[in-house]
Fold this sequence. Notes:
By secondary structure, the chain is of the alpha/beta class.
Amino acid sequence: MEYIENRTFDEIRPGDSARLVRTLKPEDIQLFAIMSGDVNPAHVDPEYARSSQFREVVAHGMWGGALISTVLGTQLPGPGTIYVDQSLHFLRPVGLGDTLTVTLTATRKFEHNRHILFDCVCTNQDGQKVMDGTAEVLAPTEKIRRPRVVLPEATLFDREARYRKLLERTRGLAPVAMAVAHPCDKESLLGVAEAAGAGLIVPTLVGPQAKIRAVAEREGIDLAGMALVDVEHSHAAAAEAVRLARAGQVAALMKGSLHTDELMAEVVSAAGLRSGRRISHVFLADVPTYPKPLLITDAAINIEPDLECKADIARNAIDLARVLGIAEPKVAILAAVETVTPKMRATLDAAALCKMADRGQISGGVLDGPLAFDNAVSLVAAKTKGILSAVAGRADILLVPDLESGNMLAKQLEYLADALLTGVVVGARVPIVLTSRADSAATRAASCAIALLMAHARRKAAP
């Protein structure tokens, strides 16, 4: 066991010193900003920092001050020390990757009050002084030796950074014309406004005009520049939005505050937007604990898909993955076990889908299954079970047995693993953003980014 031990006032002599070496990492800046509330863009906004005096993100000045406090509280004098006074001079910025050496040297002792004065110097990896000053402390008089507390590991889940990363993929692309069916609540309109403001969509709002304007006025949402098609109710809104897509007036659809069934009934109707494939849904999940995005399908449209339907679900997901820049997506076909079992239909379907891929009936990706969830996402789990596979532990796409299992998996990742979930309907003639009523405005805007990428890919592929 490691121990932390102090040096008492009587044990310390002028000239005694202690030091600490620490390299600045991005998470150090983020944690300090979270703890202090200091979100000065010079520290947390790379784009702003590039135009600032130092041309890069720099540490908070008091990060170095905190390191001085660390030496005082843990080494010299150590536990029992009480801070009395501190004077610091900031001489150079500290950037990401810089290594600071913090050296404290006792210079004077005051017997009447047991105070000790320390000289404090911080230098970087080039030997340049970045900070200096003095610290005065009330030194302990009793010896203290305690087990060193092991701190919990801190993991930062930066949803905003992941959202920005997705939007980066759309940089330089013209916004897509999108009909939004019945956007009659706060989150629906906010999502539209955020996506439009980010240059992702040119929205046409389809619904009861008076109701839409009332929500916008109540929530302070600016509808300037948004076309508005007035219809009397949600059913009419779904029909009109689909009609606009069929007529080529818009290249994408988005669900507002109406039920999914209302919109999808119009999409799959005789006058709807069917293509040659079965329509399906894909969640794009950015999970902090997984090294790459995960596509989960189908968790919203097909309740109990048969083999033929699953083949189209796989094809649709592979096409979307390729649009997102995954050249050869790895498709894990999920079941409860990784062996083919006649009593479990999901395992039989998985085996058949893999053979279809072998025969070229499903192309563009690498399929394997049946795979249990742990084997699909964990190399360790796959190796433990002796599974040799190009997909196991490396999956890009999780093809689930049915809607219920897929929906539960996606929502568990969102609420228990802080996954950023976006979703889109694929296999129709236009991409369809199918949001949940619980989705935030940012989630809706992120889904619009995927629809934009799909729409541009369709235009590029068109003869």
